[in-house]
Structure formats: structure tokens, C-alpha cells
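My current task is to audit a protein record that another person submitted. My question to you is simply how this chain folds and whether the C-alpha cells agree. This is what I was given:
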Amino acid sequence: MAKGQWQKQLVKWRRHLHQYPELSFEEKQTTAYIIRQIKGLPGVSIQSGKDQIGLDTGVIATVGDGERPVIGLRADIDALPITEETKAPYQSCHTGVMHACGHDGHTAMLIGAVYFLSSLYEANLLHGTVKCLFQPAEETEDQFGKTGAQYVLNSGALDEVEACFALHLDPDIPIGEVKLKAGVAMANVDTFTVTIQGTGGHGAYPEQSVDPIYLSSLILPYLYSLPSRQTSALEPSVLSVCQITGGVSSNVIPSEVTIRGTMRTYSEKARNHLSAELDKGLAQIEALGGSYRLYLHHGEPALINDPDMVNVLSKAIRLVDPNVAIHSIPYGLGGEDFSHITKQIPGAMMFLGAADQNNMKTSLHQPSFCFDERALEIGTHTLVKAALLLMKKGGIEGGT
């Protein structure tokens, strides 16, 4: 397929996926669509279903005969509970659900990679095996506090994988630029729920109650001070209160208020310190006559890019675009469940410049999210080149 035709096909895949987004753990039609595109390709075997990859949704397309090295390529396939506002002709057909994080693009790039790798296999030019993981549920944990990557890892489907690569579209930098950093690149993700309990009462007689709304107003400044006053300025950290609920009437003081939020850190030291200080500060509530319950959940660990795998990705992108500008900077305090994979398998994720020239103000997780679709072909070739470079070196044991 000629270069222009490949770009058109990648855009076609991406736009179909964009029109029919599905939330985490619900990606049944997305899974079926992926399988239809790659089924029957030379050298490609397909794994899907809970007994094979740990979840009902998602796909692993293995290209090759099992020959080592075994390289992993990963794309996430789920969407977000966001109502789209792009007014694109291929806008989401599902009200309140949108691909606002580029997962439609990631999936299209990996489908393209399967095609390229299959053609190499058919020509006897694939000297190794590539497992292409179309992973569900990156965005959201289930009731057991797990995301898709954890289920796939626990299934054993990636046990033979020696190294793994992923790309993430970045609407904040243009085509021709990437972010690629060894070491910590994204944050630990922790969530908290604080239930502040009082006694409630009549709004006209506050002296007869312990008011949990009043107690909340006193504790909020402490919560906001934790990153800036209880954690070193040299340790990146964020605490955001994202939800406060309590009360049902304008003249009744409620008996409890619930505060929910998130904490983000890069190091385990900062993560543990922030968690301890959160619990410590809440003791103020008891001194004022109230009580509290704290539920703290440790989610994704920080994304740590293996230096050798970063080197491979750097070489791969330069083979695709010799003039690429590589920014060796952290990707921010967002979370990414690819971190579960890199915790067990040497790997790296690159942020691929894809700023939309017509909408420079948009960003990830926004209703206006969009990206420059020229990034699709760049990403596809980069994934393939990274796998081939590692095969040429003989895998992890052969060095990079």
C-alpha cells in the first residue's frame, strides 16, 4: 500500500473508532471491530476473552511464530464519559461518551502496525515475535480497584514479552516533536474519600449541632496546603479536591459531608508522606467535636521508562523523522496504567506531538479534544521500527 493510501486507511480506522466510543470494561464493539480488521492476516494469531487475556474485552494480536525476542506493543482502546463538542463530521454517536484522550488514534496506529508486521512476516523478514496488545480499561478502575493492564498481566498473556513500547498522542506539541524521558515520566495516582460526621440539626439553631459543613470549611485549607507546605518543593506533588457532597435542604444542617479528591506524586517517598499527612491533619475534626472516616486508595504507580527502551524509541522516531525534536522532560502529573506493565517488563512510552493546527487550545480530556491525524502514520512506523530495532539486537539479553 502506497504512503498516501496508508495515511487514508489509518484515518479511516481512527474515525470509525471515534464515532463509536465505549467506556472502560464495555469495549465490546471496539473489540469486535479490531478483530475484523486484522483477522486472517498472514502470521497473525488472535487472543481475546477472559480466559485468554483476563477480561471480556480487548485483543492481543501476535505476529510471528513465537521466535524470540518477543516484543510487546500496546494501545489503549477505551473512551471517556465526556460529551463531545468538536462538531466533526465523525463526532461520537454515543451521547456522553467520547474519545477525548486519543485512544482511537492509538488503536488505529496499532492496527496499522499489525498490518506492517504481518507483511514482514509474509516476506520472511520478521526475525522475532510481536504481541500487539489492544488494552481495555486504561481510564477507569473497576469495583476491585483494578485497571485493564493489571488484568492482562495477571492472566499471564504477557509472560513471554521481553520489552514493551507504547505511544500517547500529545495535543500540546506539534507534529515533529515528541516527549521522551527515561526514569519517572508520569505520576503515582491516589484517590481519597473523607466522610466528616457531625450531628446535624435545624439551620436556625446551629449551636445545637456539630455542623460537618463548617468542619469541612476548616479542613479544606489544610488539604490544599499539603503539597505546598507539607511536601518538599523538590518533590512534584498535587492534591485536588474534586467533589464535595452533603445536605438535602436549605434549612437542615446535615449529619455528614463527603469530600473526594486525588493526590499525584512522582516518588514513593512523597506518596507515603502525603498519605500520612492527610490522615494526620484530619485529626483536627475530632478536636472540634466531629468524627471522620478516611478511605485512601493507591492506584497506578508512577510510569518509569526503562533507559534502554527509551534509547530504542529515540532511534526509532529518528528513523521515521530524522529532524524530530525530542524533549527529555516529564509528561506531567497525569496517570497512565501502562505503568503496571513497565513495573514488570522493561518498557517505555513516548508522547507524540499531534497539536491540531485549527484548535490549538484543546487538550486531553476536554470536550473539544482533537489532534493532527498526520501523527497516525508517524506513530505506526515508530512502533514497528522500535520492535525491529530490538529484534536486530536480539532482545533484552542482546543489549541495546
About this structure: The chain has eleven helices and 16 strands. The mean pLDDT is 95. The chain has two domains: 3-185+302-392, 188-298. The CA atoms of residues 317 and 382 lie 5 Å apart.
